[in-house]
Sequence to fold (368 residues):
Amino acid sequence: MNPYNRRVLVSDFDYHLPEELIAQEPLADRAASRMLHLDRCAGKLRDCEFRQFPEMLRTDDLLVVNNTRVFPARLFGRRKGVRSQPVSPKNPAARDFLHGRVEVLLTKQLEADPQTWEALVRPGRKIGVGERLYFGDHDELCAEVVSRGTFGERTVKFDSAPDFFGTVGRLGHVPLPPYIARDDRHEDRERYQTVYAQQAGSVAAPTAGLHFTPEVLERVRTRGVEIAEITLHVGLGTFQPVRVERVEEVKLHSERYEISERAAELIGSALKAERRIVAVGTTPVRTVGVAISHGGIREQSGEADIFISPGFHFRVVGAMLTNFHLPQSTLLMLVSAFAGVDVRQRAYEHAVRERYRFYSYGDCMFVE
Fold:
């Protein structure tokens, strides 16, 4: 239990957002997003464009990005109905008895081989332990539900497949967040992805990185700014609402992370030289936060379940680029911890007033 947030309520992180400000489509030009510049010490706000971001960096900054890659983790298939009660052929439900449509969102790989996954399923009440699930016109993927979690999530184990990720790539859909009220399209496979994405494993994009283009990255490097790539695979926590009243009771789902030898060298060198480290998004903040708590920044991999809220001591990150986050979310709590609760609240009120675009496909904020 963390004493610094003992009396803080989840409801303290609420704010009003008109629905029309939730971005449903990405901009044609990634770098055309608006950017709110927040000076957290002075409490000053300035409206900018993301194209100005490279010039806002110091020449000796280290930029830390998350190179995780989103995979098409939403699968549509059918269930066998192994625990269903037989129905009469005259019953209108008979047609769907053995071919009931199911949706499975793979959220976390649980073993080294890709066969066992934590997942969200729909319709949840009809998919019990022991249920068999089939995906593809020719049942290219088959799975069995082997357990059920506390909040309705399932563990599913797939039958052996020669090219599991390749098959998922063909059959799956981009797992757009639920607040994007449309079906995914082919162009989302490229657009809901950072231009530097490499390591497949996320079910949601590290959205602060969506604004970068190769040209912007080149301008960053031209200024002498180094770039370190870490990996944190975004999982179930990004889709689950906070179900407790007090911040001290919040428990995060763990997510797999990796810091390479090269990234550890770059981060360690910047810390030693007291250079500023700029995180692109909340995932690098959490990754270096858990790493430093485990004894220091070094080559490592593991499970990150660190929860950052007001009162947290930031020992690595000195500035952060971030998108605008959902009310009462753990990501909003992290940004509030970094920027300051009151300053962050004023920034969000300003963004709403000035009609910024919110959430994954929306605009961003640079906090320094």
